[in-house]
Amino acid sequence: MDSRFSTRRLTIEDAPEIRKLLLLYFDEEVTSKCLQLSATEKEAFMDTYVEFVVPQGVSVGVFDLKSNEMCGCVFATEWNKFLHPGSYETGKHTPSLNKTIEFDEFMLEDMPRIVNNRTYLHLEVIIVNPKFQRQGLGVHLMQSFEDIALEKKFEMVVGVANTNKSVQLMKKMGFHLHNYVLYSEYKDPATGEAIFQNIPPPDTGAVFCYKVMSSKRGG
């Protein structure tokens, strides 16, 4: 990452830039794009991140020094404050968001066994604005995420990678991959429908990722 960028923890004052970046995320993130989240659902998602995730103080943004535009960010939650279905304002008016949340819960089914009562930092979402990609921001954000886990003396870092690009990033950062779920085979628990079967290659599935931390970055 070059010197025209700065990095810092996100605060509630960053809400306008956070919302801009999350709107880009909805255009890029494969499950949300496939299910075509409504404006109401996007607002519910963004409200949760601004009001519940960011105040925990463990999310990081990268900013362009000249424009102060947020170029990328990693949203994280602590092990005892992670997102769950009750964190969102959902109901009959948010059918697509409900399905994405259910999928997230499905991907985390084995987490309690793998974590085994250890403390951890949970990677919720990592985003890089497309116009700032290929500049090392993804790796830098992941390093910042791990640095926070070390600072907090958490024993593990965990998350779900759901694109080919994010899977490769997790591998590069030394994460273990567990339970790769093909989009073509996942069925919505309420309807039995293969709701992600139209997600095109190379994004073929999602996988739970975890890493045991050591005193040095690299786990």
TrEMBL record:
Gene of this entry: LOC108950041-002
Source organism per UniProt: Phallusia mammillata
Record domain N-acetyltransferase: where: 5-198
Pfam families for the chain: Acetyltransf_1 (PF00583)
Entry-linked PROSITE patterns: GNAT
Protein name per its UniProtKB record: Uncharacterized protein LOC108950041
InterPro entries referenced in this protein's UniProt entry, alphabetically: Acyl_CoA_acyltransferase, GNAT_dom
GO molecular function, one term: N-acetyltransferase activity
